[in-house]
Design goal:
The structure is a homodimer. By secondary structure, chain A is an all-alpha fold. In chain A, about 70% of the residues lie in helices and about 0% in strands. Chain A starts with 16 loop residues before the first helix and ends in a 7-residue tail after the last helix. Chains A and B meet through helix 1, helix 7, helix 8, helix 9 and helix 10 of A and helix 1, helix 7, helix 8, helix 9 and helix 10 of B. The structure holds a DNA duplex (18 and 18 nucleotides).
Chain lengths: ~200, ~200
DNA sequence: GTCTATATCGTGATAGAC
DNA sequence: GTCTATCACGATATAGAC
């Protein structure tokens, strides 16, 4: 049971240790959040020693930052979606994001951020800043209606709610249903928040 | 600085240690989640020693369970709301829940559960079970439309999204706006999920 | 009942051999 | 570059004095 026997993942002979660590880190952070992720486990998944994390990334913080940076930049994705105007934007937005999140490779950094933000104040700052600056801010600028910030934030809350239900808490039937089912059901919600008539009390 | 000088909260002379611990625990768990909460801090807030936690509750698990059990039972709250029928249920549901969550006394157990569920698998099980059994299940039984489970789950995802935005990540302007603003804006969303015409693809 | 002191463990980081 | 061994620290839980 205590045989050395290193290297167990699919990675055959390439000794791209750094890349292997990043890959394992994204998976672990996505599954357990920042605080819940153990460096030793990440290293074990990558088939290398835990000391290499410090060697390559300086520490846990650096590894987390590097793993998050691997995300497909959603800012340009949003820009692209916005170029087609705001008609049907809700559906298109949700469809694109679901496609991204359903793929463990590109989606786990986001799930990791949401998970980590719940218990880690710095991660919450990161997520809040990212949402406001990269996503909601851009969307708010593109919509031509009163209270664009509130509208974008409401849409964001529904998107985060979907992430929580589908990827974090895994509430059925949302967790396992077809993406298009969600697009059809909650796309209109997003569209109403963005351009529809929402009562803006206060 | 190292003077004993115990007892600092508002609780003047009653030595209800157990109650003080529960009160402090709800606040801490609500703020930092299960994993992020340190028993020493809870004890310090309560003005007693950390060892008392084990004495009264057997350990961290027991303290968490006891603190969660203090929640105003939302099952009967939902039952009461359901008695008035499903017309305007979305608004009434959201108004009642916001009133509850905005009060640190009654709302923090929920926020604590949501926070903890993000990194702690057992807390996620707890939250999922609670949602499905106590909340969404009851709501699903009360609505007379196709796919009641999906409808209830969608409503739940929007409610959790509001919790995340308002209490956990604190995204503006949702975090600080008037409750009635939210009721007016997202109440119709809930109503549509529950009884409106949502496209139920797949 | 309440506190002090301590046992025990898990984790992140580091020094140094190979 | 990579691993072994270890340190330093913080956390829960427990034994026992008062």
């Amino acid at each position: 049971m205590s045989r050395p026997e290193r290297r167990r993942g699919p990675r055959s002979d390439l000794q791209d240790t750094r890349g292997a660590l990043l890959e394992a880190a994204r998976a672990r952070f996505g599954e357990h959040g920042y605080d819940g992720t153990k460096l030793r486990d990440v290293a074990a998944d990558a088939g290398v020693d835990a000391a290499l994390v410090s060697y390559f990334f300086g520490g846990k913080d650096g590894l987390f930052a590097a793993a998050m940076a691997l995300a497909v930049n959603p800012a340009e994705l949003v820009e692209e979606l916005l170029r087609d105007g705001t008609d049907g934007l809700g559906e298109r937005l949700l469809r694109a994001l679901l496609a991204m999140w359903d793929d463990p490779g590109s989606g786990s950094p986001f799930v990791a951020l949401v998970r980590s933000a719940a218990t880690n104040e710095r991660a919450a700052d990161l997520l809040r800043g990212f949402l406001e600056r990269e996503l909601l801010g851009r969307i708010a600028m593109a919509i031509d209606a009163p209270s664009p910030e509130l509208r974008a934030a409401l849409a964001g809350s529904q998107m985060v709610g979907i992430i929580m239900a589908r990827y974090v808490v895994r509430v059925e039937p949302i967790a396992t249903c077809d993406p298009e089912t969600l697009v059809a059901a909650v796309g209109p919600t997003l569209q109403r928040y963005l351009t529809g008539d929402v009562a803006l009390g206060a």
